[in-house]
Amino acid sequence: MLLQYLVTCGKSTEEQNVRRRPEGAHAGMQFNVHTLSCSGFRWGILMQRWIALFRGINVGGNNILPMAALTGHLEALKLQRVRTYIQSGNVVFDSTSRSMGNLARRISRRIEEHHGFRPQIFFLSAQELQAAVSGNPFPEAVSDPKTLHFAFLSETPVAPDIKALDDAKVSTEKYVITKRVFYLHAPDGIGRSKLAMNAEKYLGVVTTGRNYRTVQKLLEMVSEG
Questions:
Q1: What is the dihedral of CA 28, 157, 120, 190, to 10 degrees?
Q2: Does the N terminus or the C terminus of the chain have fewer Cβ atoms within 10 A?
Q3: What is the DSSP annotation of 51-75?
Q4: Is 189 in a helix, a strand, or coil?
Q5: Is there a common fold for 13-129 and 134-223?
Q6: Cβ neighbourhood burial of 12 (10 Å; 0-12, 13-18, 19+)
Q7: HSE-up of residue 63 (Cα within 13 Å, Cβ side)
Q8: Domain residue limits, the chain
Q9: pLDDT digit string (tens) for 200-218?
Q10: Is the pLDDT of residue 102 over 50?
């Protein structure tokens, strides 16, 4: 199961444990907490490794946040081994935080104080990212990674508009919806893709997208010692 937080809706660990459903389905905008197996002890403190995906930063000249500045903010919040990848807001870090909802709010608040906007953040573990990669329904597309896109979902779509999705796609495009990822293979690119542009609206949930090259790089980063 993918773990995400939107900084505007994150619940505390205690709240999430109480509200968690047997199959991990979400009611409204509630999120679950999972423990990482890629954790270790550092200075006698249990460190856990996370991937943070920032939604909608450095896009079209809006919500500008240089990665050097983001790294500085995260280190100021006592996060360890902070590493970023390209400018779209992809971060791997270690933390002793026991409440990712609280951490998300702290990150969001600090960025708003310094940059004037509150980013939405998705957190996921190495295992969850690996599961997303292993579940890729278009293995033939990995040789051209810019054509393969993973849209991570804030929650499982309850009533996606399949007709609208089908009407939006062109003949060369293929998509698959799972509980936590919307996979899109767009051989002609997504720059003018109506499907890519409208997928979030038709799915009815908040998403943040990354191409396969970025997903694979983050998987490599999170696996480093």
A1: -160
A2: C
A3: EEEEES-SBTTBS---HHHHHHHHH
A4: coil
A5: yes
A6: middle
A7: 17
A8: 13-129, 134-223
A9: 999 999 999 999 999 999 9
A10: yes
Q: How many residues does the chain have?
A: 225
pLDDT for the residue numbered 45: 59
pLDDT for the residue 178: 97
Please check whether the domain covering 13-129 is classified as CATH 2.30.42.10.
no
Tell me what pLDDT residue 221 has.
Answer: 96
Q: Is the CB of residue 55 less than 8 Å from the CB of residue 208?
A: yes
What CATH number matches the domain at 134-223, 2.40.30, 2.60.200, 3.30.70, 1.20.1740? 3.30.70
pLDDT value at 37 more than 80: no
Mean pLDDT in residue range 87-98 = 92
pTM given for the model: 0.79
